[in-house]
Amino acid sequence: MAPLSIALVDDYEVVVQGLAAMIRSYRERVQVVELDANADVARDVDIALYDSFANPQGDSSQVRDLVANPRIGRTIVYTWNFDSERISRAFDNGADGYISKGLSATRLVDALESVHRGDQKVHQLGDGSVRIVAGDWPGREEGLTHREAEVLALITQGLSNAEIAERSALSINSIKTHIRSCYRRIGVTTRTQAVLWGVSHGFVPDRSRQTLDHA
Is 34 found in the same domain as 94? Predict the structure, then answer.
């Protein structure tokens, strides 16, 4: 059986590059043929994997655009957020699958194949499963966690705390906690300083498309 062709979609090139590296060892089963940072999918692919890092969730217009793209076979949301309402809204939006970012690379590839076959749409961590933090994100080398980086990315984009809560599916109190922790890690005390730090450290969304050719 030919490997599934995949387009990885997020507004940050470091995120899609990190995700591509995560599944690179499974080329006989899935081949990443396009990396799209804030750009439309331009090649025919079996799956568009929509990473929710600093992006609207599965009920967004971005996902609807992917679903409507005739070049894409199936659209899958890749996220930390698993409340039942958001899952339902993503499927109402036309998404074909909903996969946890906490899965290992092996389980992620299994899930991609399962959704493509139409076997199981939702793949998440079971009770007692180890939560994997894989891939890459801006600020990781500076010690920011995935969630802190996501919050800082949204601050850099100019979103308010309420808008960040809606975008990330976190509570306002959680947002404030992540902001305080993030500020300590990067050595700032104000939102303006945080934005300036973010702009100079790769937290402005990219716009690029990279097509990958495989032998």
Answer: yes
The SS3 of residue 201 is: coil
Closest among 49, 40, 170, 22 to 104, alpha carbons compared: 22
Domain carrying residue 8: 4-130
Q: Whose CA is closest to 56, among 13, 10, 6, 98? A: 10
CATH number of the domain within which 173 lies: 1.10.10.10
The overall average pLDDT reported for the chain is: 92
Rg (CA), the chain: 17
**Residues forming a β-bridge with 30:** 4
Q: Is the dihedral of CA 96, 111, 57, 90 positive or negative?
A: positive
Do 125 and 163 lie in one domain? The reply is no
What are the tens digits of pLDDT across the range 140-181?
999 999 999 999 999 999 999 999 998 888 899 999 999 999
Question: What is the pTM assigned to this prediction?
Answer: 0.92
CA atoms within 13 A on the CB side of 123: 27
